[in-house]
Backbone:
């Protein structure tokens, strides 16, 4: 049994603006989906969602991965076990992580010879099959790890302060939110277009700040980015609530991460107050996870179990 | 005894941006400060703050008004009674209203012959004496009423939907908030300057929408304006809380009005749901007032008591 894992990600800057070609900065986080694979007589996929065979409804990503990998190897029976630290559908890239880790696990088990670039590319193909118009960002960052400037895929320095994620546990549809922004943009182009380029501009400013490890200044920009996200209609009562809870308890910064509406917010914190901020988020009704940036993308966890 | 009243105001668009010469739209609201004056043997000022003589600490605006009006008339003894529907220091222009109403009451009692323009100008002088660097907006709108585009002082059509004000009852210092925005602007000019001009641009767009009575579209712009205010750091947990409570209970729009930090938010509502929105604001911990736009600025309420 081979086990591979792949990380989730948060957006430090640029969600939504990236849809319009603006720059964004994504940061892989040490919250991983582990996928274990072993040869078997039949196809079995086990996860928190249930135990199925090839099933494009319950396990769409893994089912498409198996079919795709059958092009590279003679995969008949396979048992796949998925364990994830990433809340599903919360904007942390859980679908990218399970896709990337599954591809790599099968790649290694069947010696398919896919490079890391191939894994990222294949994972993006799978996400497009399932979601329609998926961006390559999540799958790329999950495969490569680190801090990545999108769309140029430029690796930046690592973020080494604690990162606290707050989950509203409220479902939101990325497709719907992206559609709402597009609608607002077409209704008020002279208002919304400058907001989107302003968000893009922040990533450009932040690049050198990341190199300097100047988290205080990065944080001020993230807080501005939060307001701009709220301005284009992707905020919510729950998100603002967690954002202000984090800021008011001493976070360096706090903003929505991902599509907004519901899902998650992210806070940068100091070494000594990550726990306080996590508690404040919990007290405000969110679910908090303390994590950190990870240099490693998809990786082999174990060759034997 | 002569009684005059003057209204407070809300910003539909443009607070903070107006400091940098951008356009803003202010709307006089039917929440008034009434000032009654009668000749007396001594100077007596009565308000919710206490009963004093000339007192530049407890009644700075009215004390300066008396001294200023002594230039136009032989005012020795005077009794002034102040009653206000406007919460003090909450960004609704309570100091402008008391100043304007006092000037006009003394103007009429002593037949000083000041025109409405003179009243506005004199009131602005008084606000500058007390506050240092006061803008002429509050005193102008309180004197003239209506809906006013700043800085050109252009009168727009009236807003005829209900207006709900939500007070966080949290003190905030306008001076400090304006200073914080200036600091953020000097730290990130290429980010903050476009935000301020974007806010200004909204007033330009809104002018024709006000003429058309298109409150739905005005509301969308106000909601964008709210996020932009949050982005420049003048939001707060309490304000966001009331803003989302109003929106989620069906308000057309909801945003900060005034300097932010604490103070008030304002919502436009439909005729049939102003009560619901007021209740939602109260349930979220705010103090709600249902009001409406008023065409009348300073006015004579009564010549006899």
Residues:
């Amino acid at each position: 049994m081979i086990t591979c894992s792949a990380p989730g990600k948060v957006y430090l800057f640029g969600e939504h603006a990236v849809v319009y070609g603006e720059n964004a900065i994504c940061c892989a986080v040490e919250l991983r989906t582990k996928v274990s694979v072993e040869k078997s007589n039949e196809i079995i996929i086990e996860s928190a969602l249930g135990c199925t065979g090839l099933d494009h409804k319950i396990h769409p990503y893994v089912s498409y991965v198996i079919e795709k990998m059958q092009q590279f190897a003679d995969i008949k029976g396979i048992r796949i076990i998925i364990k994830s630290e990433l809340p599903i559908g919360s904007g942390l890239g859980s679908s990218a992580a399970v896709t990337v880790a599954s591809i790599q696990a099968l790649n290694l088990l069947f010696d398919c010879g896919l490079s890391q670039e191939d894994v990222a590319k294949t994972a993006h193909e799978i996400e497009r099959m399932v979601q329609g118009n998926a961006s390559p960002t999540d799958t790329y960052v999950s495969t490569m790890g680190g801090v990545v400037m999108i769309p140029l895929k430029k690796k930046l320095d690592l973020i080494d302060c604690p990162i606290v994620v707050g989950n509203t546990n409220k479902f939101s549809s990325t497709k719907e939110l992206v559609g709402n922004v597009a609608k607002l943009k077409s209704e008020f182009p002279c208002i919304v277009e400058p907001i989107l380029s302003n968000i893009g501009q922040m990533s450009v400013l932040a690049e050198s700040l990341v190199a300097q490890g100047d988290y205080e200044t990065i944080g001020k920009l993230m807080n501005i980015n939060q307001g701009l996200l709220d301005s284009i209609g992707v905020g919510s009562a729950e998100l603002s609530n967690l954002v202000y809870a984090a800021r008011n308890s001493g976070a360096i910064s706090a903003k929505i991460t991902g599509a907004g509406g519901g899902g998650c917010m992210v806070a940068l914190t100091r070494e000594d107050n990550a726990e306080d901020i996590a508690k404040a988020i919990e007290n405000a009704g969110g679910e908090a996870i303390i994590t950190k940036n990870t240099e490693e993308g998809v990786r082999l966890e174990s060759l034997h179990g």
User: Anything to note?
Assistant: Chain A has a mean pLDDT of 96.
